[in-house]
Amino acid sequence: MSTPQATSPAAVSPASSHLRPFLPVLLLLFAGSGCAALIYEIVWLQLLQLAVGSSAVSLGVLLGTYMAGMCLGSLLLPRFVSTDQHPLRVYAKLELGIGIFAVAVLFLIPMLNSLYAAIARHGFEGIFLRAVVAAICLLPPTFLMGASLPAIARWVEATPQGVSWLGFLYGGNIAGAVFGCLFAGFYLLRVFDMAVATYAAAAINIVVAIFAFALAKKVPYEPVQASPQDRFAPELSGKGDVYLTIAISGMCALGAEVIWTRLLSVMIGATVYTFSIILAVFLVGLGLGSAWGSIMARSGSRTALGWCQLALAGSIAWAAYALSDSIPYWPINPLLATSPWFNFQIDIVRCLWAILPSAILWGASFPLALAAAASKGDDPGKLVGRTYAANTVGAILGSILFSIVFVPWIGSQNSQRVLIGLSVLSALLMLMRSVTTRQWIAVTAATAVAIVLIVKVDEVPWMAIGYGRRMLTVTDAGKPLFRGEGMNSSVIVSQLNSGQIYFHVSGKVEASTEPFDMRLQRMLGHLPALIHPDPKSVLIVGFGAGVTAGTFVVHPEVQRIVICEIEKIIPPATSRYFGTENHHVLTDPRTTVHYDDARHFVLTSGDKFDIITSDPIHPWVKGTATLYSKEYFQVVKEHLNPAGVVTQWVPLYESEPDTVKSELATFFDVFPNGTVWANDINGEGYDVVLLGVNSDAPIDIDQLTRRFIGPVAQSLNEVGFTNPSQLLATYAGRAQDLRPWLEGAHVNTDLDLRLQYMAGLGLNYNNAPEIKQQMANYAHFPAGLFKGSPESMQDLSAALR
């Protein structure tokens, strides 16, 4: 470190004389930082969701905490770290700190999970507690992440030309983030676990720190002397409109990301790979825009920032058009190739087509804002910190407001209209004082065009929301009966021309009145209710069409029906159209509904139940793998009373053998006496019900037969089970018999959720008959599983044959 010089700000020009020769090395260092940061973000948010849940409220808390840490870091480091310290050394220390905290978080989160589960509450108190847990885990490392750019900013001069160099470094950081996003999403977490991903990112931090320390020894540094006023208070005079503009820009960027990620994931399949692709494309645009904005920023014109925001109004309107009137009608059949790698190429093109223009302009906004706010004599670290903090505060508001307030309140169509209007507002903030009278004609005309574009935003076709990636392959779509957008999901209820009613969630049919769906939903409820000797209390995970929950209405022994559903609009909507099929369970006096993430509810509930039945969405949907994990099944088992029964849905369609083996092996690891019950179509596999019992008692056929009467028998007759033997004949195997088939199968755990990555690669397969046959090869009459009179045993044996 050189000795601080009492030179005037004008005499020091580190940007041109010192930074240029080392720009390639700095770009590599910042790329490494960005790569590690995105790996951490994916791992941390996934880890914390295991404890606090994955509802919109929980995700809002997590993302808000994550970005708040970065905001605080960018603001506070320049105030507490002297300008005398070499920026590269400060940067190196920050990278080391990030790596250390990241490894600590890996061990801290599981410890906090247990404590949180013991004291968690619902309502506002619960949300506050979630925020506390997230803050303990995320604030320290994210604080250091947010401080890295302001730290290195002190190596440049606070002029438009000087801070334009920061745009290139910011772009390098984003380029690394793109690689980290794809590296984590397509390789690290698919092949390894979260611990390996964390250690890989920490190793990157260490390497970056070592090179930064080495570079600091070779590169001179002369601190820029800030003005006395800047040392003690923010120099906001004449810059408030810049900070407000970049804050609104950040709000629009994150709000748009929330909306577009939701819509695109519905259309191309909500797998972990889809989310990685969308994020990567968004980051690519930010990186390209940052480089372009860095070149434009050298003029230091506020007008450029204003026109950039006005252009964003047009690009947001373009994205809305692409998502409603273009992409849904591309003549693409995703089922033509079983390998997902072909479809990934098309998915990337669709994402680029819709969101790249806006992402480029948002990327350009940051260096343009830096240049617009820069003036000689400023501390570059504080300049960058304020600008970055303003942008991040806007991003926090955008992610929370649009996911929790605007989309559920006014829908994605009107929310995109709000985004266009906000972009026009931020543009006018910049242009009001910086354009000539003649230029106002162009501004007025552009604003008028933006108003027209707001009116022209169309609604996404209901079939795109209902059938998603299969939209163009549907031959009998029928008509929509209900359409709604909640905090967590988009919902459609439709009716085919033949009369069947379908319930769709986020691009996938989740339930219907089709015979095979009705049979599965009734099996999930009637099997445990008849097998349990005296069921009094029931927990149903996921309401759906309510058919599974409704099966318990007809069982007179059941006194308490508890339903956990993550999306508030689903139960009242589906009950209007499936009321007959679900025996009007929502209005039954025994029924209580809790709106929460299922895992979070089970984890934090102090109640125990005789029956827990779970019908989550397909495991290829991002985040659902936590409801197929060993730890989740262990928590479920802990919440069963003695002799309690649990049932779990497992699809064989849109899957492949390794995925199904992983689901069964995980369930049987917790319920070693578990059994499989098949829901076939025309004698071939379709999906199955896994059944686990919290005891070793055999299934009493005679007891089951005595209760197969009245409304229970009628409910089962409606789906093709006219006698107990037909129901029990759906038996398809048990854990001890299937053990050779499951040898070597991956056990899905909280720290190794590879199931969602395996499932995401297999959603184009139609191997259900093959998988069922593979299981059948190991199944035989289960000695000791059933008991009953000789006649009952003989009838069952005949039915199974």
Detailed description of the structure:
- Helices cover 61% and strands 10% of the residues.
- A hairpin with a 5-residue loop joins strand 2 (490-495) and strand 3.
- The longest helix has 52 residues, at 380-431.
- The protein folds into four domains: 13-223, Up-down Bundle (Growth Hormone, Chain: A); 233-459, Up-down Bundle (Growth Hormone, Chain: A); 462-505, no CATH class; 516-800, 3-Layer(aba) Sandwich (Rossmann fold), CATH 3.40.50.150.
- It has an eight-stranded mixed beta sheet with strand order 7-6-5-8-9-11-10-13, sandwiched between helices.
- Mean pLDDT is 89; it is low at 1-17 and 227-237.
- The protein is of the alpha/beta class.
Question: What attributes characterize this protein structure?
Answer:
disordered N terminus; 801 residues; 61% helix; Growth Hormone, Chain: A; 14 strands; elongated; single chain; 10% strand; 4 domains; alpha/beta; four-stranded antiparallel sheet; eight-stranded mixed sheet
Helix/strand layout:
Layout: H1 14-19, H2 23-52, H3 56-80, H4 87-119, H5 124-153, H6 160-191, H7 194-218, H8 228-232, H9 240-268, H10 272-296, H11 302-326, H12 340-373, H13 380-431, H14 437-456, H15 462-467, E1 479-485, E2 490-495, E3 501-505, E4 508-512, H16 515-531, E5 537-541, H17 547-551, E6 560-565, H18 570-578, E7 591-595, H19 598-604, E8 609-614, H20 630-638, E9 640-651, H21 657-670, E10 675-681, E11 684-693, E12 699-700, H22 701-706, H23 710-717, H24 724-728, E13 731-734, H25 735-738, H26 755-761, H27 768-776, E14 786-787, H28 790-800
Parallel strand pairs: 5-6, 5-8, 6-7, 8-9, 12-14
Antiparallel strand pairs: 1-2, 2-3, 3-4, 9-11, 10-11, 10-13
